[in-house]
Amino acid sequence: MNMKVRYAGIELAHPIIAASAGTTMDAPEAVKCEDAGFSAVVLKSVQEEVIMRYNPFPRFKVLRSGIPGYESCTFYSYEQAYYGGIEEYAETVRKSKERTSIPIIASINCIQPETWAKYAVACEQAGADAVEIVPSCPSGLLVRDPSNDGHAIAVQALKDCKAAVKIPVIPKMSGQVANVLHTATCLDQAGADGLTMLNRATGIEIDIDAMRPILHGGVAGHGGSWALNAVLRWIIVTAPKVRATISATGGVMTGEDVIKCLLAGAQTTQIAAVVYLKGYKYVQTMLEQIRRYMERHELENLADIIGVAGKNFLSMEQYDRVTRYVSECDPEKCTGCRKCENVCIYDAISLKSGKCEIDPQKCDGCGLCPSVCRVGAIQIHPKEA
């Protein structure tokens, strides 16, 4: 069973990389990542903007919201960058390379146009296997200042770094641009060796009793499993149009999530939030989930599934708007919980003798009722002519 993949020209043992975060801050954290079983490490980003090197406290919170049965969980964080400047960072890269045997990817975030190449060269000279450039940092000046053109800055920073170093250069993209696909193709044309899709967005959580934003009082990054759908959406349309390999990040929490990213067209994934929430060794749980998937589908090489879902991705003009569907309930499985009845806006569902009944004449075939049934009593199928 072979999980090897190639990303930005680097062969990796499997597709799960430790993403840039406090969990990859320094050489000791890089060692933890290797010991846990990650295939590569993206070190915490070094920032040219000095204030970004200092964290406020506290800076993490798990947010739980929604309604009973439909809860959502958000990892809300305002973690700043690496604690030092480029000289200290180069030493961290050097020590990380000395103490590990897996690829070490540096991560840089600059504010002056001329600094990108300088930082990239320092990382290359320190022994980094690749450099991730991050004009997309959600709390960085380039994103905070609305007058900045994130697209143009990313493309120029990439060109400057490519001209200065020989190691792979990987832009970490933002979802906060006018058109992610357009930016991705422009970065590809400018020579990107890989694309990391997508950096966190920022948001606000408010304490309704204190009547103020929580924690430090301002914006924070927010992520969780719910974020994956947007990442998949952009990868599946980008992958067929670029030469650069793709690393998915944002919402990747399980081995099944990794599989989804590869099916969409990514070669690797990067995880951080789940490391905070479950620990470094959770990567082994994810790898086991991937192994079980490969066994179930009799896959010898994991890389064989890369982009397969993209081949089945339809344009809106191709959607089937003719075939009608209808739901049916199995009374033997039905517990009479009434969840399906409550969500049916077509009044097609009623309870008879404590069991749900679905009127096929009223049923719209929308698919909502089977998805809210927790016991699998409702199935949906094409309506007979």
From TrEMBL:
Residues 325-353, 354-383 form the 4Fe-4S ferredoxin-type domain. Its EC number is 1.3.1.1. The keyword 4Fe-4S does not apply. It holds the Pfam family DHO_dh. InterPro entries: 4Fe4S_Fe-S-bd (IPR017896), Aldolase_TIM (IPR013785), Dihydroorotate_DH_cat (IPR005720). Keywords: Oxidoreductase. It catalyses: 5,6-dihydrothymine + NAD(+) = thymine + NADH + H(+); 5,6-dihydrouracil + NAD(+) = uracil + NADH + H(+). Involved in pyrimidine base degradation. Catalyzes physiologically the reduction of uracil to 5,6-dihydrouracil (DHU) by using NADH as a specific cosubstrate. It also catalyzes the reverse reaction and the reduction of thymine to 5,6-dihydrothymine (DHT). This is dihydrouracil dehydrogenase (NAD(+)). It comes from Candidatus Pullichristensenella excrementigallinarum. The lineage of its organism: Bacteria, Bacillati, Bacillota, Clostridia, Candidatus Pullichristensenella.
